[in-house]
Amino acid sequence: MRKSERLQDMLQYINEKKQFNLKDLMEEYGISRSTAIRDVQALEMLGMPIYAEHGRNGKYVVLDNRIISPITFTANELYAIYFAMLTLSGYKETPFEQEINSLEETFRSVLPSGIKDRVKKMKDSVKLDTPSHSNEAPYLKEILKGIMEEKVYSISYRKEEIRSMTVQFVTLQAKFGQWYAKVYNMNSNRIQTVRCDKIVQLKESEENQPQELQYLLSLLKTYHPQPGATTFTVEVTERGKDLYDKESYPSMSLEKTGNTFTISGYYNADEEAFIAEYFMHFGKSILSIQPSVLRVAIQGKLKSLITYMDRLN
């Protein structure tokens, strides 16, 4: 292995260990003690934040700072990174708005002219839009940090009224321009979904012991259906399939049945009005609905809308 390759690999090796001694490097890379010392000195010159702890059990420690050691990318990897930045630009808010802006400045300052020209063409030609809305979600960065560091938070959440919850964030996802988080509610010991723009206050809490993220992720497969949940099947036309593709939810699935499509799923007792309003937008693309209680709920929504429109005149 050439020295440049060894140093590049050593950057990753040391970053993962956080602390090491010369013997670790000698055994890992089959090098002499003097070569290991020179390599550590070379890494320090590259900006690796290393300091030595002397004594009988002396070792090197990597400082836990926010500067990442240099990484080499291929041209296609750089294009992929920039394309990912463009996808985020379609959102009004992201967890790393300031960092994305500074990253773009870095691209402009360090990229070779040929790659820089191609990146500019990509920016001018690729347009990735998401639905526009005026909702503010100011805690996205804190939510993502809480997921990665397995922290517990006290939050105030606006629904019909302001509610207080103690939660651990499990996932963060975007859907139709809105940001949603799945949280483990420490008060009810269950997973639930919250809209991030509805969180009006967030504060780290040390009163509850956090759960391991992998355990919380395992709960997502079974968290949603509640006792007494209603299953449904709605047969739709090709247009209904297009509407489903534009907006659907994890509790639903779509299957092709001959020349038509079947949407199957379930809803909990307190979600019937929401599901009825969802299918109300399918209009004449609906061919059949089971169970009948869902059809009645949709009819009720339509009658309510007609009554409301009549009052406008």
UniProtKB/TrEMBL annotation:
Natural source organism: Terribacillus saccharophilus
Q: Does the keyword Lyase apply?
A: no
Record GO terms (molecular function):
DNA binding; DNA-binding transcription factor activity
Tell me the domain of life: Bacteria
Entry protein name: Predicted DNA-binding transcriptional regulator YafY, contains an HTH and WYL domains
**PANTHER family listed in its UniProt record:** PTHR34580, SLL5097 PROTEIN
The alphabetical list of record keywords is: DNA-binding, Transcription, Transcription regulation
- Signal sequence coordinates: none
Question: Domain named HTH deoR-type: which ranges?
Answer: 3-58
Instruction: Note the PROSITE patterns from the entry.
Output: HTH_DEOR_2 (PS51000), WYL (PS52050)
Q: Name one Pfam family in it.
A: HTH_11
Q: Which Gene3D superfamilies match?
A: Winged helix-like DNA-binding domain superfamily/Winged helix DNA-binding domain (1.10.10.10)
InterPro entries found in the cross-reference section: CBASS_pafABC_assoc_protein (IPR051534), DeoR_HTH (IPR001034), HTH_11 (IPR013196), WH-like_DNA-bd_sf (IPR036388), WH_DNA-bd_sf (IPR036390), WYL_dom (IPR026881)
